[in-house]
Amino acid sequence: MTSNVHLIDHPLVQHKLTLMRNKEASTNSFRRLLNELSTLMAYEVTRDMPMQEVEVETPLETTKAKVIDGKKLVFVSILRAGGGILDGMLSVVPGARVGHIGLYRDPKTLTAVEYYFKMPHSMHDRDVVIVDPMLATGNSAIAAVERIKELAPKSIKFVCLLTCPEGIRAMHTAHPDVPIYTAAIDRQLNEHGYILPGLGDAGDRIFGTK
Ligand code: URA
């Protein structure tokens, strides 16, 4: 079940996630922690980026050294909570391009309804990292991957903070080729589609809404 799932269990990631789970964490701390945690996750997610050797002149001599190869990476943020992860990722990959996909969860059916879609050009030449803090029912993630696949990018990864067995199963059934990067796999979903024990509504906690 956990094949193609990368659990990022670095102590700093786990520590920050625990602080975020606390219902007493302020909007300010929650946002800051999410930003820091996303920066750490970006490091793992970009580990296999292609490199090329270039010539560089140091103050002492000319040498060959590596730089990242190919077209700029694309982060696709699922609105609105994806923005919290996006900011942290952009702080370590500032040249990345950014796409947005607006999906809301129909509260009755829990299915994803698209209301916005804007992507960078030349998607077929790029690697894509889709970001959304919570992989719960998987409906939004699956719909987002489906839409991105229409643009035939070189690769797609999915990054979340938290997921659960139901979310992983749904995503793997629909898109077994898309690796999931997560900081934790929680116990289960409740009947309202929330992850237990989870951290509540990620969007509300990032933006201080209710
Ligand atoms: N979305 C959230 O924000 N929280 C959950 O627990 C599940 C989906």
UniProtKB/TrEMBL annotation:
The keyword Glycosyltransferase applies. GO terms for biological process: UMP salvage; uracil salvage. It comes from Ramlibacter tataouinensis. Pathway: Pyrimidine metabolism; UMP biosynthesis via salvage pathway; UMP from uracil: step 1/1. The keyword Nucleotide-binding applies. CDD domains: PRTases_typeI. It catalyses: UMP + diphosphate = 5-phospho-alpha-D-ribose 1-diphosphate + uracil. Its EC number is 2.4.2.9. 5-phospho-alpha-D-ribose 1-diphosphate binds at residues 80, 105, 132-140, 201. InterPro entries: PRTase-like, PRTase_dom, Upp_B, UPRT, UPRTase/APRTase. SUPFAM superfamilies: PRTase-like. It holds the Pfam family UPRTase. The gene is upp. It is an enzyme of class 2 (transferase). This is Uracil phosphoribosyltransferase. Catalyzes the conversion of uracil and 5-phospho-alpha-D-ribose 1-diphosphate (PRPP) to UMP and diphosphate.
